[in-house]
Amino acid sequence: MIDQYAVVGNPISHSRSPEIHAAFARQLGHRLSYLAIEAPIGDFTKVAEEFRLGGGCGMNVTAPFKLEAFAYSTESSLRARVAGAANTLCFHGGVVRSSIYADNTDGVGLVNDLRKNLRRELSGQRILLLGGGGAARGVIGALADANPAQLAIANRTFAKAATLAKQFTAAVSRGSILAIESNQLDRFSFDIVINSTSADLSSPLAIPASCFAPNSLAYDMTYARGITPFLQLAEIAGATIADGIGMLVEQAAEAFFVWRGARPDTQPVITSIRAAL
Fold it and tell me: Which of 120, 123, 235, 242 has the fewest Cβ atoms surrounding its Cβ within 10 A?
């Protein structure tokens, strides 16, 4: 019997996860199937449980269900508990309800892409994370554990950024996290600016050019055709720019390892997905 996996989200038609995991399986000689499932809003648990009881071995979870996925689980990794959200579920015990394991591979995916693929060391760097939603929650812990000189969060709603900064400062093992009012960003300069929001796909965020220090990197966690307005703004400011394709593949590789105990080579898959887009 072929092991069954899936990615669940809404919408889901844009997902590259099926081809990524198919590439990993071919590379490592694993036999598995991987589906994309669109769950109606409010019905994540029902859809996930039907898949699990039908013999599913594991599941990736994307927007807007990562908080629900964590709540659905009965066991979890430290990084999922710190984030309060899960993008990976592992069904160890088949129909045994007590073994739904939640993990969050977003943070390690981002850090691996920055370090391994983009050759950016994070230790001692000044990092700004834009956004306060589920995507931000998934990466704050990993960024803080990378020992930056400064980790700051800015969001259109300052209270949300402040809440996240306080929560994660208490949860992570290194340093403190700063929340910055969006109208105060012109007082700061950063080596790495990471956009975790999707709102700017049609309109750029109000980020002053002074946020981008000399030789800085602007990283957009989204992946789309062409350059997003955020990356356009950063490029004009003189920053090196990168999109989230590498993170997408790296977090998938970590999920594959959680499920299968084997680590695929991500570089050829990143190249293939980038060419397809």
Answer: 123
Under DSSP, the state recorded for 180 is: E
User: Tokens representing 131?
Assistant: 């956004």
Q: Say if CB 20 and CB 248 are below 8 A apart.
A: yes
Confidence (pTM)? 0.93
CA 29, CA 195: separation in Å to the nearest integer?
A: 36
The rounded distance, in Å, linking the Cα atoms of 230 and 93 is: 44
**Residues tagged active-site:** 66
Could you write out the DSSP letters of every residue in 66-97?
HHHHHHH-SEE-HHHHHHT--SEEEETTTT-T
- By the 8 A CB rule, do 143 and 127 touch? yes
Q: Please answer whether residues 239 and 212 qualify as being in contact, where contact means their C-beta atoms are separated by less than 8 angstroms.
A: yes
Q: Which helix (H) or strand (E) holds 46?
A: helix 44-53
The answer to whether the beta carbons of residues 66 and 76 sit under 8 Å apart is no
Q: What is the full per-residue pLDDT of the chain (277 aa) written as tens digits?
A: 799 999 999 999 989 999 999 999 999 999 999 999 999 999 999 999 999 999 999 999 998 999 999 999 999 999 999 999 999 999 975 444 458 999 999 999 999 999 999 999 999 999 999 998 888 999 999 999 999 999 999 998 999 999 999 999 887 666 689 999 988 999 999 999 999 987 544 455 678 999 999 999 999 998 876 788 899 999 999 999 999 999 999 999 999 999 999 999 999 999 999 998 7
DSSP 63: T
Give ∠ CA 16-18-21 in degrees, rounded to 5: 105
| Residue type for position 261 | G
Nearest to 59 by CA among 6, 12, 138: 6
